[in-house]
Amino acid sequence: MEKIIFATGNKNKMIEIRAILSDLGVEILSQKEAGIHADVVENGTTFEENALIKATEIAKAAARMPEYQNTVVLADDSGLEIDYLNKEPGIYSARYMGEDTSYDIKNQALIDRLEGVPDEQRTARFVCAIAAAFPDGSHEVVRGTMEGRIGYEIIGENGFGYDPIFFLPEYGCTSAELSPEKKNELSHRGEGLRKMRAILSKKAENVNNK
Questions:
Q1: Of the listed 23, 77, 100, 119, which one is catalytic?
Q2: DSSP label at 96?
Q3: First and final CA of the chain: distance in angstroms?
Q4: How far apart (Å, rounded) are the C-alpha atoms in residues 10 and 197?
Q5: Per-residue pLDDT tens for 62-102?
Q6: Catalytic status, residue 112
Q7: What is the rounded CA–CA span in Å between residue 110 and residue 128?
Q8: Which pTM value belongs to this model?
Q9: By C-alpha distance, which of 4, 76, 3 is closest to 46?
Q10: Of 34, 80, 81, 202, whose CB count within 10 A is highest?
Q11: E-strand spans in 94-155?
């Protein structure tokens, strides 16, 4: 395993990914950095299905490029589930109210929809499914979660997306107020990437032992 391509163009996400997978000692490229331009239709019904769709489609594109013949492709699908709203926005988190709508507007809309709802009914979680497509055609999918509540206002500058309204009662702050290091330790993406890191390390070990 010489390189990993992660099927995203999100710079903030790539910062987290590289930090968490740094000890693999492998170059990690975003899909954009790898020069892969593919418009993948995420028509799955779960986070896992969408992650696997992205990973396998980008792996097909990578396989047609000589420099990426033996490259592992990772992809994630993540989002916010709010229990009171029947787990909305769920797999539509990025597309909620339109992909071009700012998260300030999305976050305020969700707060408004929960107006008058007490703390105990504001439970929510971030979910992140991560899929790996290997050069031999095999694949793996893992899931990470982070439990919390929806806050009453938008607070914090360190995160992105729905982080400023995702309140962590045990820390007394939103995930957008956590340091990057603490967020990687606690987050759904951090948990998912650590699970995937263990799988990648085992695969590499098996190859080296052959």
A1: 77
A2: T
A3: 14
A4: 20
A5: 999 999 988 999 999 999 999 999 999 999 999 999 989 99
A6: no
A7: 20
A8: 0.90
A9: 76
A10: 80
A11: 123-133, 139-150
